Amino acid sequence: xxxxxxxxxxSINGEDWEGLADxxxxxxxLRAPGTQTLRGGEEVAGYYRAALGPYPVHRDEPxxxxxxxxxxTVEIRFDGRLANGSPLSFEAVDVFDFRDxxxxxxxxxxxxxxxxxxxxxxxxxQA
Length: 127
Fold this sequence. Notes:
Elements: H1 2-13, H2 17-21, E1 24-31, E2 38-39, H3 40-52, E3 57-68, E4 71-81, E5 87-99, E6 102-109, H4 112-125
Parallel strand pairs: 1-6
Antiparallel strand pairs: 1-2, 3-4, 4-5, 5-6
């Protein structure tokens, strides 16, 4: 599991969407704030590609990893910069469930309302 988690963060931070998709079980689910449940590695990779699109510079840094059985909970610090140079940072928690050595279910938790407000303010500050 630890290897898959390391590869997950390396893929997101390196924008390796194909490599990211390969880490998900064929019947995987992603649940993230403000979205419908996404299924399969390709949909998950597409979500991340779109979500991180506004950030030419971004990094998801796992700050704490707790593994129990076939699940892992990861506290994350996101730091990014928009195309206009405005910074955006927030904390998140991802809960991973594994099956057959792959990510079977991922739930992502963060204050989506605050992130949207910060994003709107950062975009308007440069307008």
